[in-house]
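2024-03-11 09:14:02 INFO worker-7 job=invfold-0412 stage=load source=structure_tokens
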């Protein structure tokens, strides 16, 4: 977790915790300063037994939350899920963020309500899911929000509003890369990363790595983006997740960073 120094003191005082009762395929809303958070899970598994879900973040005007790699400061969202004490594989996908400049503090994220799409793989027979969520909700200060949710899934009624919330979260995700809108390659050049891309001139690039928050703000240079490295990438290289966004169009994919 990274926050600017002026935010750290306030954030330490304002961490929020909630434990919410179970509801049919969704939690209640956890009210937090600046908004509210809830977890919604589809009651219908796919052929592989996976469940789709959505982590919904309602934001009041002037508040914001962050993408998976915020930039120079911020709190990326994360979720940990268990079923009967057993870990549940949980994947989180993100709608395309926007880049914002708060007087020199440049960050990637959302300044309006947003839903993060979840794919969950509970063990057979699991009747309830327990989730621990951690994210940042910020205005003048950044408040780390830690919330605990329990959602009943076995035998839960399929409610139209909840199913729609999950479907909307997945519908808002970027599309697959395609010719004319994709990253072609990425390589380390000293203390920066050069990312070759096929994209319109006004496109913005967002990068994330399992190595942690290591990227500065990308700068467009012709057909490439030059991305400052705030921390070195692993010596053996790393797989990078990217989102390219141009207006209302966005794609998301992955690329290996070569040396």
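2024-03-11 09:14:09 INFO worker-7 stage=emit residues=259
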């Amino acid at each position: 977790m990274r926050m600017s120094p002026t935010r750290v003191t306030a954030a330490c005082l304002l961490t929020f915790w909630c434990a919410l009762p179970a509801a049919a395929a969704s939690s209640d809303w956890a009210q937090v300063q600046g908004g509210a958070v809830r977890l919604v899970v589809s009651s219908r598994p796919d052929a592989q037994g996976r469940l789709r879900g959505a982590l919904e973040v309602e934001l009041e005007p002037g508040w914001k939350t962050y993408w998976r790699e915020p930039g120079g400061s911020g709190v990326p969202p994360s979720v940990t899920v268990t079923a009967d004490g057993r870990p549940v594989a949980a994947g989180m996908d993100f709608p395309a963020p926007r880049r914002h400049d708060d007087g020199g503090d440049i960050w990637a994220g959302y300044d309006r309500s947003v839903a993060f799409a979840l794919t969950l793989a509970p063990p057979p027979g699991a009747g309830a899911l327990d989730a621990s969520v951690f994210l940042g909700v910020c205005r003048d200060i950044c408040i780390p929000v830690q919330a605990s949710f329990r959602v009943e899934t076995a035998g839960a009624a399929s409610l139209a509003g909840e199913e729609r919330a999950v479907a909307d979260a997945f519908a808002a995700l970027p599309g697959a890369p395609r010719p004319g809108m994709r990253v072609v390659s990425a390589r380390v050049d000293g203390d920066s990363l050069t990312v070759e891309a096929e994209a319109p001139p006004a496109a913005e690039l967002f990068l994330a790595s399992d190595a942690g928050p290591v990227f500065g703000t990308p700068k467009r240079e012709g057909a490439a983006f030059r991305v400052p490295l705030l921390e070195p990438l692993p010596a053996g290289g790393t797989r990078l997740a990217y989102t390219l966004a141009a207006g209302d169009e966005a794609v998301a994919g992955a690329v290996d960073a070569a040396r």
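2024-03-11 09:14:09 INFO worker-7 stage=report msg="The CA atoms of residues 205 and 244 lie 5 Å apart."
2024-03-11 09:14:10 INFO worker-7 job finished
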